[in-house]
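Two records follow; treat each independently.
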Amino acid sequence: MSSSLRRGTLAAATLALAAVSLTACGAGNDAQTLRIRPDNAATHVGDIKIQNVNIVTDPHGSGEATVTARIFNEGSKDQVLKGVTSKGARAELSPAKGEKKLVVPAGGSLELGGKDEASALLADAEKAGVRNGDARAVTFDLSRTGDIKLKATVVPAKGAYKTVGPSSSPSSQPPKPGTEQSGEPGENGKPGESGKPGQSTKPGQSTKPGQEGDASSADNAGEQGESASTGQDAQEGGAGH
């Protein structure tokens, strides 16, 4: 085989291998990118970075939903989360247990969603058109950075999202026993107010022992007196004849 032929064969083989390598690399990178791409929305604006954003609906049909997120503050000053909205629907914000505001501390983070954590509850999510599987625009209003917008996926509170759904939000917790006025013992069913023994059937009021007996004695005495009077009248009449 001539040297020129060998050089041509080697060049063709090299080009083929290069093409295969590039194709594999491209496919591998695309597939790898798809594998590591996060399912949860995230964005970075100024000192604020927001990750793991989702709208989690109540699978039991209450019509409520929560906005979950982790908000990082890379700045040197604290910021306050002032509001969370989604297409005009404003979430009810509740601070974490023991806190008064939803503060994103400098160099720290704020968690939205989960037991004892801060929460953003969409009370009328169903009326606002929130549907599982949708990607809805969500706006976070920070005291210094201002509005930060991104799109979040709507998912039901199942599986990994079960602990961050509406049932975990302080705003949606049912009232504790004894706090409802209509159900407190003693207001409309307190023993003794409407059914206290002795009010309507107290012994001695309408059936006191001795009262009926005294009345009977008086009646008997009256009957005896009338009989005596009748007898006297009859005697006087006989004497007159």
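The next record belongs to a different protein.
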Amino acid sequence: MHNPAVSLAAESCDFLRYEVLALRERVEQLEHTEESLQQSLKDLADIKFALDQSSIVAITDRKGVITFVNDRFCEISQYSRTELLGQTHRIVNAKHHPQTFFIEMWETISSGNVWIGEVKNRAKDGTYYWVDTTIVPFLDRCGKPYQYVAIRNDITAFKQTKDELQQLNEQLEARVEERTADLAKALHDLQQAQLHLVQSEKMVIVHGVGVSVGSKDGTGSPWRAARHASTK
């Protein structure tokens, strides 16, 4: 005889069994998600560590106010972290670039695009340094920047070497031009001397004194040969 209570109990057991299995599967999914999240956080931490060791990093808010700097930024700028936070990058402005340079930079990043370029900055002690700069805007859900991450690398030595090579090249070009001018003058003087010699030889022939060295009187003197010819 069919017992409804037994059937209901069996159905309840089956339902609970399915619930337990579903719950176990959900727990496994959450555990996997947590592991993936922890791995992602570790990867981000490793990337941050690598950037801190190799690059000069700064983060600003949407208005350009500095909210984070790493140790390398403090080291190259010679400002403490306390002095930098809450400031803008005008604190290291070397006044080397025209205003249009920074206007173009700001228009690029505020539009959500990455800006890449070389910037000359001024440290706290008044010395200058160059940085190869990449500024990446972080966008909110509306596609508007809410902060900017600037990653820089010191290229001061490279710029100095480049300037020195340019100066040497300019000096070499100047010396080449000077030497070329000297050679051109020497060539001109030689041509003038040759022309003068040719004209002198023509004058001698025209006046009848162009007697060869082997004259009949055997003296070997063209002047004596000419005198001898005139007395005949």
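Discussion point: The longest strand covers residues 128-139. How would you locate this feature using only the token line?
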